[in-house]
Amino acid sequence: MKNILRQTGIIIAFFSFWYLLFLLLSYHLYPISKVIDNSRVGHSNHVRGDVLKGNIYLYDAPNILLGSWLSKHNTNRIIILGASNSVKMRAAIMQKILPDFSVNHATVRGSNVTQLRNVVDVFRMSSQGSLKRTIFIINLFCGTFINNKSSMGHVVWKNKNLTYFEAEGLRYGLYKLSNNTLEPTLDPHFMPLAVHLLRPFLLGEIILYDIKLYYDNFWLSLHPSKGSPQDSQGEEMKRASLVEWKNAYGDIREYMEAPEMDSFISLCKEIEQSGGSVVVVELPTPSWMHGINEYYKKYISKRQLYINKIETIPRVRYIDLATLLPPIPDADFVDSVHPTQEEAEVWEKAISQYVLSQRRFLGF
Amino acid sequence: MDFLSIKFFIFFFSAICIFYLSPLRYRISVVFPLLNLFFILTYVNNLSQLLPLVVFLGAGFIGIRLVETFANRVAFITSLSVILVIFVYLKKYAFVSFLPFISRSYLSVGLSYILFRMVQMLIDVYQKSIQERVSLVSFSNFCCNFLTFVSGPIQRYQDYKLQESSLGQKALTEREVFDSFSRMIHGLFKVVILSTLCMGYYKWFFSFMQDSTVNESSLVLCRKFILASFFCSLYLYFNFSGYMDIVISFGKILGFELPENFNRPFESRSFLEFWSRWHITLSEWFKFYLFNPFVLFLTDKWPNRKAVPYYGVLAYFFVFFIMGAWHGSSWVFLIYGLFLGAGMSINKLFDVLMRKYYSVQYKKIIEHGLSGLLGTALTFSYWSMGTSCCWLDLKDLVKLMIKFKIQGFLMSFLLGIFLWAGALWLVRGFKYIFGRGITSLNGNFYFSRTWLSFELFIVIGFWFYGFGGIPDFVYKAF
Amino acid sequence: MTDARSQIKIRLNKVFRDVFDNGLIEVFGEMTAKDISEWDSLMHVVLVAAIQKEFGVRFSAAQIGQLKNVGEVLDLLEKHNSR
After folding, report:
1. What's the CATH number of domain C3-82, 1.10.1200.10, 1.10.268.10, 1.20.58.630, 1.10.10.10?
2. What ipTM score was computed for the predicted complex, to two decimals?
């Protein structure tokens, strides 16, 4: 027994060394002061991009996730929501065109309507229920309307109906699922302390995430899929993307059904009722996809249903970005949905100009 | 109770304290049964879910008593039959689906392993390899040992009994404790990180294969199939051997010497050798109580030296068919068993042929150098293809067979040999260059503890990151 | 070595030579399967069958599986002999 206790003590002591080392590193690399900047969510991300990582909210914006960011904001805000095809947009571009707004990126890779709602709820929670002086720019495309079964289904979570936010809270044991809602496991006063104690592991996560990002970009650079649809490289890209869509989107009969559209319309209404404004931006996709992708075709045939409804909501605008831009060559997309960096910045500029032109309508 | 949960680690450390602090005379008769009971109770929501297990254990114990008392074939056959019938019924095998099964949920985890233990005891009692009377306490401790309850290793009763009286009495040295902790953490690393990563890759390749609407060239599909198979095999290995590392090291700390279940199986140079390195205790059980008696029966009945290899072939098919059935109650597992049996038979006949036409020393030549490497790769490739039965249902398997035909499977097999041989060559090269240095560093007190604690740190971080993505103990399902 | 044991050893040697078809085999206590290349799990059972027949004994499943070397076989046979 004595030797067991001794060896346990030795391992704990050495473990503490690593723990403290990573804890100090985390404060050095990502100081707390940047994280609790009330006006700019995700400000500390500037090195990696202006987005909230889907699975490390705790690190980047712990106070927001934990609901303890209750201070009133007193600036005009723009919150950009969307999925991975919005990730390359630069908040700095919009910030320049709309200097009297504080521009924040809150895009989350793989977002569907439910996950967009999660982000909006977090802002509502952190602003004491009010979304006044806030414009939500919701970048959407056909992927936004993936149902939850498919969207959360392909993510390897035990409970397959969790959004990223929910999974984030559950992952670290800070929340538990009770009657389908998240309940904190600790007293709210201890939550920030718990997040501090988790920082060493969160830092490891960010490092892993960056390694994965580097690897993905490296892989993409080795396999540029910008071939035109006619050549063999393009054909293979098309085939591979169709397989990915089918795997990601699930059964086409269950895609783009009423619940998702109704949920999106409700989301716009809720934002408006909380004092906010919405600009719904339809993001472009490459032309080669339009003819062959069954999901896209279904989306196009049904989208007018929700567009008609949201355009009746005060302070909500819908714009098809493709109408603001010259025809986009397929080479400006890296695959079936994601733009190149240059193209993303063109989109950001166009959206910014549009918001500027509509600010009176949006209540500013 | 999930072995990867904080609850389990709290339970385990509490068990150590309770065990070592309790009076010696109560450890086996009171403390150990209570710990086992507590562990089993964590798997059920109410006591009624334990009833089938209690009935099963009761039948086993009564059977053993019957054989001890009457010591005749009738008692033995009756007891064995009752146990097997109860097992088949509780596991809801497809071939007895006409029976009205119990509709309410009940604990079925660990039943297979309890079956192995009880059958082993029954046979050994009948054949007088167990001479002393089996007490109820020893029987229940042996069958329900919380360390081996879920998925083994399948310890023999005699080996357990030898240790029972001295449990917790032998003082462990610091080295032994450190080695146990070290192994535990390596086991966690395998389960939490390696098996999760392999599962991720296997699912990724598998998802590509699923889509039958997209036409892919045969070579691309073969590559995806073999890579999915490889990663599935590695996932099984890291998952199972990782859990075994945790269980065996826990056992060591409590004073149990549990048998090993793995001995670097992917270094096997032949399929025959593979089964002495993979799930060793299961292979040994089947060898002792199925393979050997079956071959003995055939040899006694038809003594013919020349026919011996063919007796072996028959025995392999028979044993692996049963082993396949043990893995699962659906038909696809029977195909799995026959596939393994075919592999063993082909290997055996090849062995016999080589000895006949070349030399008895051929093994010494063929199992080294490049031929040894190819043999290892061939073994892994064949076995990995077999494990596809674990992740394909019958419908998908038939679809794959139609799509691939013989050429597709052959191409996958050959591609697999090439890929695995390449991977092995790289790993061996790495070991050759860095192996000695790593061994000497590990001998240093500060380095070894620093590295081990860093490994633990990474495991905990990955466990947080993985959440829900960490695969459960796969062999719990068998 | 006792007389009984050496007698058993002589008979055992003959069994080994017959089973493995090798007139040069000389058994010894520490001899294991590694010393005879044909002695694998299959031939082990054939060998046991031949020993059982020669000595009129019956080994249990556990005994067959656990025999590690010739010395253990000799011990078992000596025990049977003394009964």
Report:
1. 1.10.1200.10
2. 0.89
